[in-house]
Design goal:
Blueprint lengths: L1 H28 L15 E4 L5 E6 L3 E8 L5 E5 L9 E7 L6 E10 L2 E4 L8 E5 L5 E8 L13 E8 L12 E8 L1
Antiparallel strand pairs: 1-2, 2-3, 3-9, 4-5, 4-10, 5-6, 6-7, 8-9, 10-11
InterPro entries: DOH_DOMON (IPR045266), DOMON_domain (IPR005018)
Protein name: DOMON domain-containing protein
Organism: Halonatronomonas betaini
């Protein structure tokens, strides 16, 4: 009888551990809530940059989900897989209109090492943002995968990301105040 009870307890502990493990896996694989408030638990990956911006990312089969924080009050931008500085990068650039939660957001392509232009077709799904009491800008957005912008991502692969922001200017043509390139692994 003691052996049966210990087996039952052992199976129960195993099942409880499995449920706890799987609940963490399910949370990491679901789409984050695009509400303008970034919670690290929403995203599978995150990175701090040397310019004060933080990057959060997640993906499913249809979208790449990005969360950004910026110390500036002007525009902020995310670029995916440039070939040379900014050239060929898929770029999302956004600004809070007059310091309010209303967001101006566009998709661009890097056209040269130091230039980009708005795409004819929008490549942005849901998006939302907020500004914290200390002035940090938070932006979340989804990028639907498409052959002409970001085709998809592969697990275990490393990708080059550009982050940039402007301290005060919301014009997308204003040169960045801070810019950096980081490598992330999905």
């Amino acid at each position: 009888m003691e052996i049966k009870i210990s087996k039952i307890i052992g199976v129960g502990v195993f099942l409880l551990a499995l449920v706890v493990f799987m609940s963490g896996q399910v949370a990491a694989e679901t789409a984050p809530e695009i509400d303008g408030v970034i919670n690290a638990e929403e995203y599978r990956g995150s990175a701090e940059s040397n310019i004060g911006m933080d990057l959060y990312w997640n993906h499913d089969e249809e979208n790449l989900y990005i969360g950004l924080t910026s110390p500036g009050e002007g525009w902020l931008a995310f670029g995916f897989e440039p070939t040379l500085r900014m050239r060929d990068a898929s770029i999302i650039i956004a600004a809070f209109v007059d310091g309010e939660p209303e967001i101006s957001i566009e998709s661009h392509m890097g056209t040269a090492p130091t230039a980009h232009a708005e795409t004819e077709e929008e490549h942005i799904g849901d998006f939302a943002g907020s500004i914290t009491e200390d002035g940090t800008q938070m932006l979340e957005f989804a990028i639907p995968f498409s052959e002409d912008f970001i085709a998809g991502v592969e697990e275990g692969e490393t990708y080059t990301i550009i982050l940039a922001y402007h301290d005060s200017d919301t014009s997308f043509s204003a040169r960045h105040t801070g810019r950096t390139t980081i490598e992330i692994e999905f």
